[in-house]
Design brief:
About 15% of the residues lie in helices and about 40% in strands. With about 280 residues, the protein is of the alpha+beta class.
Length: about 280
């Protein structure tokens, strides 16, 4: 659930904001959790915020899930603006730290940008219908019943695995490589690697296969085998589509999203740091 201030399309400077602002109209949105709403109440008093539909940047209060929700809203609307996240959730991998004393517009003016390209997904269900989806973190294929999934894996123009048997398989972007992909023992990818992680989920056969790191210019196609007996769902970040027949995945370079980070707190640094986190 998003909350957006609708007071005025013009941002009114406040005391303490002396850094020139590169964004004229900034929106403020928040998840419906108590911590995010508390921060929203505090920050909403700092200035008059722009409506989201008129903004040229947005401050997002919440966790990674709400940031993904906000970015997907941009993809759905076709209007993409820079997003500056403030962590009022748990992990906050895509977010900046919360400081109620700091002037937000000054932080925005100093923020560094990072462009990320989502996955473009074309899925066909067993009834023959085609569905278009996007994923910023990952696309997962998951078994729907107690029966293991059987999936044919094609990368580029060649079938690489004729029959992958297990709970499923996922494709993660570099931005999403530290999320579900990491939990499934997939690799962490640097943001500028132009690679995708192809990671099996509890594989039974091939028993020793741990996944692959693939150039993101290569399309990936999954075909569900025995779909009536072994139904499979596709989950693109937070959107689920059941009874899948096949899925094709490509990188959407023409639809890049822009995240803003405080200096020294870039997504690249977090991806590197995560690989030395032994807790």
């Amino acid at each position: 659930m998003a909350t957006t201030m609708q007071k005025s399309p013009a941002d009114k400077p406040i005391v303490g904001e002396t850094t020139p602002n590169r964004f004229e109209h900034v929106a403020l949105v928040a998840s419906d959790t108590p911590r995010a709403q508390e921060a929203y109440d505090i920050l909403s008093e700092q200035r008059d915020w722009a409506p989201l539909e008129d903004a040229d940047a947005v401050v997002v209060l919440g966790g990674d899930g709400f940031m993904l929700h906000t970015l997907h809203g941009m993809l759905d609307s076709g209007r993409i603006i820079p997003a500056y996240g403030i962590n009022r959730g748990t992990v906050g991998f895509l977010m900046n730290r919360y400081d109620k004393r700091a002037a937000i517009l000054s932080r925005l003016a100093r923020a560094k940008h990072k462009a990320i390209a989502p996955l473009r997904i074309t899925a066909t269900t067993q009834d023959g219908k085609k569905h278009a989806m996007c994923a910023i973190n990952e696309l997962s294929l998951l078994r729907e019943t107690r029966q293991t999934a059987k999936i044919c894996v094609k990368v580029g123009s060649r079938v690489r695995i004729e029959e992958l048997v297990g709970d499923g398989v996922l494709v993660a972007t570099p931005a999403g490589s530290t999320a579900y992909n990491l939990s499934a023992n997939g690799p962490i990818l640097p943001l500028d690697s132009e690679m995708l992680a192809l990671t099996p989920i509890s594989p039974f056969r091939p028993r020793r296969w741990r996944g692959a790191i693939l150039p993101d210019r290569m399309p990936i196609t999954f075909t569900v085998l025995e779909p009536d007996k072994r139904p499979v769902a596709a989950v693109a970040d937070q959107k689920e589509l059941r009874d899948i027949s096949d899925v094709t995945i490509e990188i959407a370079r023409d639809t890049e999203l822009e995240l803003l980070f405080d200096p020294g707190q870039s997504l690249e640094e977090r991806i590197v740091s995560e690989q030395f986190n032994f807790n």
